[in-house]
Amino acid sequence: MIFNKDTAEKTAELLLQINAIKLNPGNPFTWASGWKSPIYCDNRLILSFPSIRNYVRDEFAKNIEKQFGKPDVIAGVATGAIGIGILVAESLGLPFVYVRPEPKKHGRQNQVEGFLQKGQNVVVVEDLISTGNSSLLAVEALRNAGANIKGMAAIFTYGFDVAEKNFKDANVDLYTLSNYSNLLNLAVAKKYIPEEDLITLQEWNINPAAWKQE
């Protein structure tokens, strides 16, 4: 679910402007999973544009507090959400921790890095949601460390049905600054893509695993 429509449209336009999101139905990208995709999203680029990262920071901070109440801690999912997560925590005047994909192999073997007390309320910040699997592994690690997860806030989601199911099954409320449907509407309206590409982009979103698999 998006925080609100105005933010969703503005965020989508900013991501397109800096090529953090690229749309290319005629020459699809190949994801690490092997899926073919007409879209590629790299939200790490946001950090290189001060005005845009400040916009994302401010929208996160405002909407997180409005939707979830002010938590005790902000947690970022490594590595893509560490930078923006720190900015959000700083804006809210809160502690910050981050979650590794798996525990370290040496030293204290931490998976959650930073100071976290059992029972603290945590909002998790993520940069991108596809299936939600890696994001929810971070939630599981935080819960295992004793955190009370208030919800997750992400910059962008592809809006896959499987992600919605995964978050529902994990009992995690997910809110995003923007999503795929708002992106497509904005991209057509602002002529980032021709209208005839819209059907192809919508078809991919319905069944991404099978799209252009031959």
UniProtKB/TrEMBL annotation:
Residues that span the membrane, as ranges: none
GO biological process, one term: 'de novo' UMP biosynthetic process
Positions annotated to bind 5-phospho-alpha-D-ribose 1-diphosphate: R100, K104, H106, E126, D127, L128, I129, S130, T131, G132, N133, S134
Cofactor(s) the protein needs: Mg(2+)
Gene Ontology molecular functions: magnesium ion binding; orotate phosphoribosyltransferase activity
Domain named Phosphoribosyltransferase: residues: 59-173
InterPro entries: OPRT (IPR023031), Or_phspho_trans_dom (IPR004467), PRTase-like (IPR029057), PRTase_dom (IPR000836)
Alphabetical keyword list: Glycosyltransferase, Magnesium, Pyrimidine biosynthesis, Transferase
Ligand binding (orotate): S130
The enzyme's E.C. designation: 2.4.2.10
Similarity comment: Belongs to the purine/pyrimidine phosphoribosyltransferase family. PyrE subfamily.
Self-association and partners: Homodimer.
Protein name: Orotate phosphoribosyltransferase
Species for this entry: Flavobacterium frigoritolerans
Gene that encodes it: pyrE
